[in-house]
Specification:
Domain Gfo/Idh/MocA-like oxidoreductase N-terminal (chains A, B, C, D): 14-131
CATH class of the largest domain in chain A: Alpha Beta
Pfam families (chains A, B, C, D): GFO_IDH_MocA (PF01408), GFO_IDH_MocA_C3 (PF22725)
CATH topology of the largest domain in chain A: Dihydrodipicolinate Reductase, domain 2
Number of strands of chain A: 16
Shape of chain A: globular
Protein name (chains A, B, C, D): Inositol 2-dehydrogenase
Domain GFO/IDH/MocA-like oxidoreductase (chains A, B, C, D): 143-258
Order of helices and strands of chain A: EHEHEHEHEHEHEHEEEEEEEHEHE
Structural class of chain A: alpha/beta
Oligomer: homotetramer
CATH superfamily of the largest domain in chain A: Dihydrodipicolinate Reductase, domain 2
GO molecular function (chains A, B, C, D): nucleotide binding
Chain lengths: 347, 347, 347, 347
């Protein structure tokens, strides 16, 4: 990884181009600059050029590209990380495929199932594999251990998955559809990750909203999913708990019932007044910061070794499944019954 | 409570008559004989007279009645405990009401909503209060603490209740309807206990059965309840876990999320081989034996002080609500959608 | 247990005489009156006669004795419960032995080892067994489970016991010697209960006192015990935590490490502000109320069946061992090194 | 960090020289090569030249030095990581100081307090700061959180620290002194880290050994430390539990009692047979692998920014304190009473 390498045609570090340097993109730049081995941020671009310049100035050897297109095509970019607004993901991902460059695309892959399917088809047509999708929970240590436990068969046959997703608070304007597209989408991918099969139908159960729910928002809510083989998944979403960030998963198998996410605390304390306990993180960062790091590190390693996509990583097809399921879940918000998920054949 | 009492017309101890001395009835006889203060078993009866005689012989001063009718009418019976098969409960409970004697009736109150309603009406017509129903979980210390936390308002407004009900195993022939009438019925009463409002509709979600489920049985299954005010309750039933007995309840409130039932273990151990943990009780006894004792003790105290029904106890009306909800839940097993619960007005 | 009993010479209920009706004695009267099956409080006595009369008036059929001596000798007293100040325990216990009546004596058995030994000798000389000592923790369910686990051999050979004893607060004037005689004495008996062997030496380790420790008080402190077979027990005493009441025991065995006392909570809650946890009881009552009930119920059963002393119960010999160990522990407070415990042979 | 840097005199990555590529050294090489951002292994050396060559061949751009002296002096080495046998640490650390190069030295700093003090003096005399000592637990997330909680004052004044150190098994020949120098040394440094003051005296409490203890080995054992301000620390060492690897710390403060290390599990499972629980890691790796990574990453960052020593890192003085305390603890193994720790003034 230095000028003494014997294979001079290869870049010393993977040179990453980052499209979009808002909160998420800037985090990725900082991550790659400080913690990801074997990569450096070579080029950034953003709709707000000043912001892009400011970020570039903070990273030795980093320059600003005038447009996503220029960045994707640039000779000094080996791989692309897309952190632009979701509406641009599809076109940018396809441009990366066409340029033959590995891409780590933040969720969502596209704004609707059709567009997501277009990315799947483009990658298939290219004959290569390029697209990793930013469902970083797959790289969380607990998720990975649970996935391995399921795959090993030690839990027996799985019938039910219980998921819980809690936020302390949400921004104003967080309507029901955002509970599907921004929150539940993570559990939707987790279902595909853990169970390795598509979701067939989805139902929304809407209890009386809590007093902190915005006008018209159903918080908490319950989504029910039925998979192709007939397994049931419950996803309880509660995004204004006023408490903390929590993500739990319980798997009911015939040989064991396994749970993750209950031990988010580290220091347990007894306090004056007769209370014991610990603190719950305020947001997702303490819970999943390591998963983001692991995801990007695994991606960089995959790019460096030419496989482009890490073993645990979500792919374009997972992005398509998520888009198709979210679309059905959105319909389910008002349907009052199970709504089928339409999934086209995998190319 | 001795011969020196100044009110000689009152019995020293509450003299209890027990109808039915199968497993449950015999347990109650042993309970009253050994652990319940202020009561003694005075008379027992059973379809199997030999069994009744054997039980009576084990208790000083206990005799056998020829029939439930004779027992209920007997001068040496102050209060009646019904532990006969469910089909006889309605008539025996009404006979107690008509005899003006307090009765603790094991669940169910009756075999259908109409019969249960008849008991409610009979008690109303009597102008007194006589009927306690054996939903003993209300007397479990954790249930009571959670009920008090809800009623105190410290959890804020409740939107969702999550219940889990797990058995290690069930007897052969435990069909889906028994999962409703024998298992879910406990959570159904718990909903009425915790939330103090009737259930309006119920839906059954049936995942692919686990490998230990009997032919035609859906185990695990998920029941969804919606209450009059729009709260949602999930009840996950899994009666062949091959693991142990567990009952959990989680309450989602706007000021707190409270959980009971996760700490059924007492001794935590680390063992050779790198495992830590504890044991799960094989059946309901270690979990709820104290609740049975507390229930009967509270009932005896209520009988002794003339109120007849303990503050926490389920009543005939709760038995009617449970019967009406179970009937709807049974229909829901095949309906595939929410089924309304028909509840007549409270007399 | 009624007037129809065929053995009229026997009392219907065990008639208990209670000596001393201060806080502890009054609790026992209320316990026997309300929760203990097969017994009633027949006679009470107290240095404050008015208090005794008031308590007697609250219990049907209960009278006041003029003195402990009269109570012990009374025909209408089958068994005696001593809850008087500790300085009187020795003489009252010996009087019970001489009267041939079972006695449950609150701790301590006596104020010094010699007096305690005198009780042991008196009981030996009587040829009977009469004395139960009120170390009620032996009847706590967790203690009993741990004791059974040790005795069963499932934990292998035991090398170390770790005990922790925490109070939220203590009354003014709670000096170091009271930390030995009032607090550590419970763990001292627990050592004898769990390990079934005497303590040979004891050392006190005194850290810098916390800011709430009274002048001259060493709180927290650490006592170290070495048993006859060479096992080590640590006892951490912290009686002004300002938090809650907690008692923990950890056993290090060659086949397992077992812990009790960590799960004193029942309802676990997540609260606004990102905290999760539960409450710690303010004093010993929620933790050990059931143990007191179980202790007295077991004693009553033992009296009724003529064995007089329950299987789990502490005896006069245990009281002597505790007294001898406390005496050494008090010396250890200033010795700075291990102090031997002098134990005379068991008669 | 690339050829476009504007400061060409500086190395792109910190070029690390690793002395000793046995298990620990090879782990560090692999760590730096795969996970540590901003560094690369430039030179390695080892007594076994073949092993060094094999390791060097696995890392692009890495060469073998003929000796530690050559490595320390080399122009292509910016900083040195010492993973040689402990007997060589002192001389190699001093050589690094004299060469003006930052060094991360695995524990121990030296084989005795005098040699450790010589390193402290050498660094003092140099006028710079060069020496980081490999007490990696300081970088464990739980340790760091607990340290921050103590330093923030939220736990109030600290009186007692309870440490537990458990291994599933040890290699043959693990004598008592190794329990001090290899195991307890970690808690000794933790005491200095958490309490920021030296230890004044130490006592060893030796219970009857467990059945797996080797001939002459006292396992488990208990070490007691008293610090300069009078705080007490218990360190329970049990290195043949046959169970798993566990490290716990409990801090007793006047405003709170905090515990770390009890939640080493991630997936909690219920299993057939009525058991619940999780697995305990077999050795220190799952528990502390992240701490090693964090330690080396922090060191690299400190070297890159010229401070040389990370904020949380142990220094030569900590190594001296550990050496002085271990020497006293070894004497305490046979002393039977508190043994003073002799600490010279900090230069």
């Amino acid at each position: 990884m230095s000028s003494t390498d014997t294979a001079p045609a290869l870049p010393a570090d993977v040179r990453v181009g980052v499209i979009g340097v808002g909160q998420m993109g800037a985090d990725h730049v900082e991550r790659i600059a400080r913690r990801i081995k074997g990569a450096r941020v070579a080029v950034v671009t953003d709709y707000f050029r000043d912001k892009a310049q400011q970020i570039a100035d903070s990273v030795p050897g980093c320059r600003v590209a005038e447009s996503p297109e220029e960045l994707i095509a640039a000779d000094d970019v080996d791989a692309v990380l897309i952190a632009s607004p979701g509406a641009f993901h599809k076109d940018q991902a396809i441009a990366c495929i066409e340029a033959g460059k590995a891409v780590l695309c933040e969720k969502p892959l596209a704004m609707n199932p059709e567009d997501a399917y277009a990315v799947v088809e483009a990658e298939k047509a290219s004959g290569g594999q390029y697209v990793s999708l930013g469902f970083m929970r797959r790289f969380d240590r607990e998720y990975a251990e649970l996935k391995d436990a399921i795959d090993s068969g030690e839990l027996g046959e799985i019938s039910i998955l219980n998921c819980k997703h809690r936020n302390a608070t949400t921004l104003p304007g967080f309507v029901d559809s955002m509970m599907v597209y921004d929150s539940a989408v993570h559990e939707i991918d987790a279902i595909h990750y853990f169970l390795d099969e598509p979701i067939r139908e989805v139902q929304a159960i809407l209890p009386v909203p809590g007093p902190r729910a915005a006008e018209g928002q159903h918080d908490p809510m319950l989504l029910l999913f039925r998979t192709a083989s007939g397994r049931i998944v419950t996803d309880e979403l509660y995004v204004n708990t006023d408490s903390g960030y929590e993500v739990r998963t319980e798997v009911l198998g015939s040989q064991g019932i396994a749970t993750i996410g209950t031990e988010v605390h580290r220091v347990t304390t007894q306090k004056p007044g007769g209370q014991w306990g610990g603190s719950i993180p305020a947001d997702f960062r303490p819970r999943f910061i390591d998963a983001y790091d692991a995801e990007v590190q695994a991606w960089v390693a995959a790019v460096a070794d030419g496989t482009n996509i890490a073993a645990r990583s979500a792919r374009a097809w997972d992005g398509y499944l998520a888009a198709a399921t979210c679309e059905a879940a959105e319909k389910a918000l008002t349907a009052g019954t199970f709504v089928p998920v339409t999934v086209r054949p995998r190319p």
